[in-house]
């Protein structure tokens, strides 16, 4: 007989689960407190435990730890309300197999979750995770951090909650958003992404919410925004921290009510879109600097996934490089010496920079070559140094040194007797432009004793442009 343990101080919920599970032929034991749990837990073993996170005399997380340590074969499901979803995510990190939200609106989903756990389909789940990761373009192998992150993303994907993805430029935030979409019940619906930092305020609002004919100059016809186009699917808001305060207010209203109006419209539109937002900046710091709304952050950051930079999972670098080679349909391998050099490099542009290096390497290789050796790699990787981007962002004190190093390294490339990918060079020039912009902003901010409005006026730029230069332009440009 399969033994199920339910730990919940709400007797109405307990009675419902008791009846629901006994109808499935399961043997159910009820604990309404931590004391009840201790008494029942000592008497026998259990195959599944459903645990409420809030109990009158103890924490559901403490009970979860107890079960995980003393009865690891017992599967666990944490029960939570919307306001305690973050606690449920902590429970997943502590070893819970899943979490469900109360009230139980979808009994079929609840039954399926219980059946899968009792059938011990953990191996199947791991197989699904790897398949979905490959479909999304995420390549990971030996990195425990990435594997744990994917497992967490897989468990929260079916839940109707918003997700915030943080990570440096080029770490693959959009790929993780795709993974969440494919692993969710919305996978048959549209997935639409939009970069909030790439559009002006007026254009961004039009892209998000749509506009009516004649709403502004050039609006020759009615147009639906991405909230309408996504429908019941997933909307990926990349670089959400770059949205203006006005746009943030409107985003907050959509998240709170599910309603919005087109630009120039008077009719209220409704949406059931799931939001996955991403940023390379620390939004908590942005809130402190009054550059981002705290209430909007609260709505977006129901669950946070932080993607590690490539330098923190060096063991995956050869695997990713070989995947990119296979994707290019080239019968070329990575030599051990080249792989070792690539693992020693810090990759400030992360996976996107690695992808660009592979493309460049394939371009300069001689026809008929089948092995990438160290001589095929860029100068900065061969020498173990950054080519045009220092690990630390240039400050006013080091700006002249940065310019000198940029010039010296560019001259090294100019003098090198090897083919050079012009697109890479132009990207490095853009890097210099970004660093110069940021350095001048910092210089003027020092002169104005931190007065951003005065600094923007002296530089003849908008406040949004100033924030953009500070928050993004100091980052590596490789994307």
TrEMBL record:
The keyword Ligase does not apply. The keyword Transcription applies. Coiled coil: none annotated. Residues 139-363 form the Sigma-54 factor interaction domain. PANTHER family: SIGMA L-DEPENDENT TRANSCRIPTIONAL REGULATOR YPLP-RELATED, TRANSCRIPTIONAL REGULATORY PROTEIN. The modification 4-aspartylphosphate is found at residue 52. InterPro entries: AAA+_ATPase, AAA_lid_NorR, CheY-like_superfamily, P-loop_NTPase, Sig_transdc_resp-reg_receiver, Sigma_54_int, Sigma_54_int_dom_ATP-bd_1, Sigma_54_int_dom_CS. CDD domains: AAA. This is Sigma-54-dependent Fis family transcriptional regulator. GO terms for molecular function: ATP binding. GO terms for biological process: phosphorelay signal transduction system; regulation of DNA-templated transcription. Keywords: ATP-binding, Nucleotide-binding, Phosphoprotein, Transcription, Transcription regulation. It comes from Siminovitchia acidinfaciens. Residues 3-117 form the Response regulatory domain.
